[in-house]
From TrEMBL:
<feature type="transmembrane region" description="Helical">
    <location>
        <begin position="253"/>
        <end position="274"/>
    </location>
</feature>
<keyword id="KW-0812">Transmembrane</keyword>
<keyword id="KW-0472">Membrane</keyword>
<feature type="transmembrane region" description="Helical">
    <location>
        <begin position="132"/>
        <end position="154"/>
    </location>
</feature>
<keyword id="KW-0813">Transport</keyword>
<dbReference type="GO" id="GO:0005886">
    <property type="term" value="C:plasma membrane"/>
</dbReference>
<feature type="transmembrane region" description="Helical">
    <location>
        <begin position="71"/>
        <end position="96"/>
    </location>
</feature>
<dbReference type="InterPro" id="IPR035906">
    <property type="entry name" value="MetI-like_sf"/>
</dbReference>
<feature type="transmembrane region" description="Helical">
    <location>
        <begin position="195"/>
        <end position="219"/>
    </location>
</feature>
<dbReference type="InterPro" id="IPR051408">
    <property type="entry name" value="Phosphate_transprt_permease"/>
</dbReference>
<dbReference type="GO" id="GO:0055085">
    <property type="term" value="P:transmembrane transport"/>
</dbReference>
<feature type="transmembrane region" description="Helical">
    <location>
        <begin position="108"/>
        <end position="126"/>
    </location>
</feature>
<comment type="similarity">
    <text>Belongs to the binding-protein-dependent transport system permease family.</text>
</comment>
<protein>
    <submittedName>
        <fullName>Phosphate ABC transporter permease</fullName>
    </submittedName>
</protein>
<keyword id="KW-1133">Transmembrane helix</keyword>
<dbReference type="Pfam" id="PF00528">
    <property type="entry name" value="BPD_transp_1"/>
</dbReference>
<feature type="domain" description="ABC transmembrane type-1">
    <location>
        <begin position="67"/>
        <end position="271"/>
    </location>
</feature>
Length: 284
């Protein structure tokens, strides 16, 4: 390699390292800033109790309603999105296997949906509520968030299935399996690490989204006992408490944000571990 090429290589390497370092610093600055303000306000009572009278004025209580509400919402929405995403992804890779133009068009539409702001999904969910005469509820929020995360899940699964050998699909068809059966018995099984990762990533996105549930979930100081009741979520708890002029309540908002970040970190680490474990049985 000439000296000029060697110098260019070093400059490009330095630029890439600088941008990577910037992203890492920004990420850790956000996490450190939230934890530095939130951890001092976090205590056992806050994690295990629902808000009591005067909680939003700095008195006793906790955010258990928001923690449970977030888990209900994210799990419900992720399961609903999974029911939508698996058939949609398999349809792209089985019945559209010989139609690459249609595959590209569908991927383009999904990418467009990925770029639609969450507040637009929230407005759509709100209109859906008005159309069916629903009140703000856990069910309305689950449907809205499921619509929000379905494109994420489908595209993640789509990318995963693209790594599955096409020869495996063609071999299965030659043995007499029909397309749908081949999709469920072979493609889905081989892409299970990607499906699991997609589910957990969508779960993380669902649990952390605020805009899409702002109009649909409502808010309550109680833990919902049915799908028709309103539900509190951690992002909404952060949103409402952070706008308070009372310092104690603001500190609790950062504590709720710290809890939210910890849940998302656990989900992210779990997705990586499960994906690595399932990848060991994959045919390459």
């Amino acid at each position: 390699m000439s000296k000029k090429k060697h110098l260019e290589e070093k400059i490009v390497k330095a630029i890439l390292f600088l941008f990577t370092l910037t992203i890492v610093i920004v990420l850790f600055s956000i996490i450190f800033g939230i934890f530095a303000k939130g951890i001092p306000a976090l205590n056992w009572q806050m994690l295990t109790e629902v808000p009591k009278g005067g909680y939003y004025f700095g008195k006793e209580g906790g955010i258990l309603n928001a923690i449970i509400g977030s888990l209900y919402l994210a799990l419900g929405a992720s399961l609903l999105a999974l029911l939508i995403s698996i058939p949609a992804t398999l349809f792209i890779h089985t019945y559209l296997f010989s139609h690459p133009k249609w595959q590209k068009k569908i991927r383009l539409w999904l990418d467009v949906l990925l770029g639609v702001p969450a507040i637009v999904y929230g407005a759509f969910g709100f209109n859906l509520m008005l159309l069916f005469g629903w009140q703000s509820s856990l069910l309305a929020a689950i449907i809205t968030v499921a619509l929000l995360i379905s494109p994420v899940m489908i595209r993640s699964m789509d990318e995963s299935i693209q790594y599955v050998s096409k020869g495996l699909y063609e071999s299965a068809l030659s043995l007499g399996y029909f397309k749908g059966e081949t999709g469920f018995r072979f493609l889905l099984k081989q892409s299970m690490p990607g499906v699991t990762t997609a589910f957990l990533l969508a779960l993380g996105k669902g649990i952390g989204d605020t805009a899409s549930v702002l109009f649909t979930a409502g808010y309550t100081d109680y833990i919902p006992e049915s799908l028709n009741e309103p539900a509190a979520t951690l992002p909404l708890a952060v949103f409402f408490q952070l706008s308070s002029p009372i310092p104690e309540v603001k500190a609790r908002a950062y504590a709720a944000a710290a809890v939210l970040i910890m849940i998302i970190l656990v989900i992210s680490v779990a997705s990586r571990m499960i994906s690595n474990k399932l990848s060991k049985n994959r045919i390459r």
